[in-house]
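Re-run with default settings, no changes from the original entry. Doing this only to confirm the output is reproducible before filing.
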Amino acid sequence: MFRKPFTLSETTEFMIGLGPTWNKATGEGWKAGTTFMADFMFWSSPEQKYGWFIEPAYSVNNGERSLGVSVGLLIGIH
């Protein structure tokens, strides 16, 4: 995944990305495709010790399309 980060404020960041994917289902061969994602990160303070993120993603693999959303906890390591 190739990502480009943007700082929106001291406690909010945005990252956009695009990259290749390879999938293999049981009984099927490998499929190549592309994934596009947007990542929103919200920190509890400007020190960025902890926060949370939400990441919607859209993928296309050999004509099959999928949409997913990930949500999680961020822990800053300085």
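Residues 13 and 49 are 14 Å apart (CA to CA). DSSP finds no helices and five strands in the chain.
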